[in-house]
Amino acid sequence: MSETAHGVSCRVADFRFSTEAESFRVDVLEWLSTIEPELSAVNSDPSDLTGLDEKFERRLQADAGSRGWLSLPLEFQAVFNYEMARADAPLIDTAMTLAGAAVEKFATSEAHTLVGESMRAGLVEACSAYTESGAGSDLTALATTAVRGSRGWILNGTKTLVTGAHKSDWCVTIARTDDHASPREAMSMFLVDMTLPGITVHRHRTMNGWTLDDIDFANVELAPEALLGIEGNGWRQMSAALGAERSGMFWIGFARHVLDLLSQFVCTTTRDAIVLADDPLVINEIGRLEADWSAAELLSRRALWAQIRGVDDTLIPAMAKVVTTELLVAIAQSATEIAGQSGLVWAPLFGGEAPAGAAADGRFAWEFLERVHGTIGGGANEVHRDIIATILLGRVGAS
Ligand SMILES: Cc1cc2nc3c(=O)[nH]c(=O)nc-3n(C[C@H](O)[C@H](O)[C@H](O)COP(=O)(O)OP(=O)(O)OC[C@H]3O[C@@H](n4cnc5c(N)ncnc54)[C@H](O)[C@@H]3O)c2cc1C
């Protein structure tokens, strides 16, 4: 609360990070500077989303986990995610991010608690597998089943488009456990040990060479304690878990990184004897992107502010998701256009020496192919637009 000049108390929304969070940022940046040489071709694995080798990723996660950085309060988590994205460090899609919220919120046994602790400590990898080929935006159409067997549950079905299943020790999934209930009452959530017999992971190349995975569950025998939370409550649990961190500050971090690369590129590249940064069309475009970045960054901080205070965990985060992911697409598009032919020469992240003539070491072409993913993963933007419209029109209708 603050006092106005007229002595009236008012609640002012202040979206800035706290002093504590800014001082945490300094610690994180210092740590990043020590690992920067290792974020390079020496640890390259272009078949993984991070572009980096699993062993290296596990080592970094354990280091970050030992510092308590994988289970931070929302504000600190946003700072951490922003800086990791800006540095291309493989610490965004951790077990905690992908599955930790579900495990921690809905743990019902000692075994769940132990898995949750190992996620916090960065000692395991995990994935969340909800999507199926016939059920993406509309998860009520899920066909995977879990039926009670003599020793627990028998799981059958195929999940698709799963991030990081090939390296996961654990998987949070949902399956139909009741044939007769309405879809939202028919699902239950399970914590699955990925080493169990009957589980096969198939890796499929994305446009950028890294893989998204399918998981086949074929008569997988789950112990009774694999059930996470309450039987029949899987739908609500999944919605709660997906909403755990939606400010999306990592998108803003990626955008900052690519905009910085673009600025560097136009300041150091000459075309027809003119430095690109002196071309009014180029500088106008970069100015527009910078203005859009500032607006998106503020919106993301507003989403975070709202989530921390529990005043709106749906509308503003949905807006932030749409704006930030589409900003990334726009930056990638402008970067390739400004760079011209050299912007079309592609190289994987951390791939070592880029092909001759590649602008920004092939990063602009990589971004061009990559950023459409963000508009689909985490809920397609069209669906988020539906949510935004429904809430806003609902409010207009109600007023
Ligand atoms: C990079 C990436 C990572 C992913 N990681 C995971 C993961 O780890 N775990 C997991 O379970 N899933 C994951 N997914 C899957 C993701 O959640 C789905 O792709 C997403 O929910 C959309 O589902 P779909 O692909 O089946 O498309 P559909 O639902 O079939 O949609 C097709 C098109 O129709 C539009 N559409 C659908 N419904 C509506 C509507 N109501 N109003 C307007 N338009 C609509 C969509 O916007 C889209 O353009 C990932 C996807 C990507 C791209």
How are the elements arranged and paired?
Elements: E1 2-3, E2 9-10, H1 19-35, H2 54-66, H3 74-86, H4 95-106, H5 110-120, E3 126-129, E4 145-149, E5 152-162, E6 170-176, H6 183-186, E7 187-193, E8 199-205, E9 211-222, E10 227-228, H7 234-242, H8 249-268, E11 270-271, E12 274-275, H9 280-309, H10 315-339, H11 363-370, H12 381-398
Parallel strand pairs: 3-6
Antiparallel strand pairs: 1-2, 4-5, 5-9, 6-7, 7-10, 8-9, 11-12
Helix pairs in contact: 1-3, 3-8, 4-5, 4-7, 8-9, 8-10, 9-10, 10-11, 10-12
The structure holds flavin-adenine dinucleotide (FAD).
Summarize this structure as a short list of keywords or feature phrases.
12 strands; 399 residues; binds flavin-adenine dinucleotide; 16% strand; 12 helices; alpha+beta; Butyryl-Coa Dehydrogenase, subunit A, domain 1; Butyryl-CoA Dehydrogenase, subunit A, domain 3; Butyryl-CoA Dehydrogenase, subunit A, domain 2; four-stranded antiparallel beta sheet; four-stranded mixed beta sheet
Bound molecules: flavin-adenine dinucleotide
CATH superfamily of the largest domain: Butyryl-CoA Dehydrogenase, subunit A, domain 3
Based on Cα principal axes, name the global outline: globular
Mean pLDDT score, rounded?
93
Major β-sheet strand ordering: 3-6-7-10
* Beta strand count: 12
Order of helices and strands: EEHHHHHEEEEHEEEEHHEEHHHH
Name the structural class: alpha+beta
Give the termini separation: 27 Å
Largest sheet, if any? 4 strands, mixed
The helicity comes to 40-55%
